[in-house]
Amino acid sequence: LTKDDDVRKYVPRRDFEKDGKKHSKAPRIQRLVTPIKLQRKRAKAAVKAKRISKAKTEAAEYQKLLALRMKEAKERRSESLAKRRATRSASQASKGDM
């Protein structure tokens, strides 16, 4: 069989007689690959790829934001530590003067 052949012609059929007439039965063909199925498959893959790329870009943006926030927090922490050190050294200097 090739892609161009009609699969329905190659299904094993069962002949029988009913009410004096000859009939034939064939099993249902499932998962027949049709152009519509292929189109849906491509569409699904495109949606999946789009979703993955969107998630990657959003993750990168979030990492940038997180790095910025961490940097700001670090600066704030160092400023507060510097203030604390300055007040402590000033208070120790005033105690030393006494």
Which key terms come to mind for this protein?
98 residues; mainly alpha; 1 helix
Task: Describe the 3D structure.
The protein is mainly α and 98 residues long. Helix content is 64%, strand content 10%. It has one helix and two strands; from the N terminus they run E-E-H. A two-stranded antiparallel sheet has the order 1-2. Strand 1 (14-18) and strand 2 (21-25) form a beta hairpin. The model has no long low-confidence stretch (mean pLDDT 89).
Could you provide a short overview of the structure?
This protein has one helix at residues 35-97, and strands at 14-18, 21-25.
Largest beta-sheet characterization: 2 strands, antiparallel
Structural class by sheet pairing and helices? mainly alpha
Tell me the number of helical segments per DSSP (H or I, 4 or more residues long): 1
Give the percentage of residues in beta strands: 5-15%
Tell me the number of strands.
2
Q: What helical percentage do the residues reach? A: 55-70%
Give start-end ranges of low-pLDDT stretches. Answer: none
- For the largest sheet, list the strands in their spatial order: 1-2
Which descriptor suits the 3D outline? rod-shaped
Termini separation: 105 Å
CA radius of gyration: 38 Å
Q: What is the residue-mean pLDDT, rounded to a whole number? A: 89
Could you give the order of the helices and strands?
A: EEH
